[in-house]
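Hi there,

I know you've been waiting on this one. I reran it after we fixed the sequence typo, so this is the corrected version. Both the input and the resulting structure follow.
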Amino acid sequence: MTVLVAYASAMGSTQEIAQHIADRMASSLDGVECRSVDEVETVSGYDAVVVGSAVHNQSWLPAADQFFARHAPELANRPVWAFNVGMADALPKPFRKKGAALQQARLAGVLPQDVPLRGHRMFSGVYKADQMSTALRTLFRLTGGRFGDFRDWTAIDAWADDIAAQLAKPASPTSPGSAAA
């Protein structure tokens, strides 16, 4: 079983999550690789793919969108999971759940429809004050926004473990990526 964990990261948080997922899955599966989407020329050598992207302006990074567009025919024939890393947990408390729900709904509408996903998760990342202008940073703080590392490693581990467990089971003849019986 060879698995690719590919990522598009702007500030490094998504890359760290992707590497963590790959390391976690490698503890129970052989052949797990973690690479930037920009480094992936083909997915034909992988039995399964996990793709993650940072979210900026309620969208995946262009490199992640391009990855799906470029590899859609190959991805459609194997199990694929996706995750995104945003800032929902950094938002002011009254907006956290609503912001997360809006982001999840918006992203579900833009993920490629020609690549059936086995699962899609949203995680919060690291949000630093120096990522904003002084004026925006001040307004963000005044409204209850928070800066810091909001990655939930327990949730990330559970998701990676679930994927690894699914991949360790024999595929049914009707599941994407399985050979016809």
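Quick highlight: The first strand starts at residue 3 and ends at 8.

Best,
R. S.
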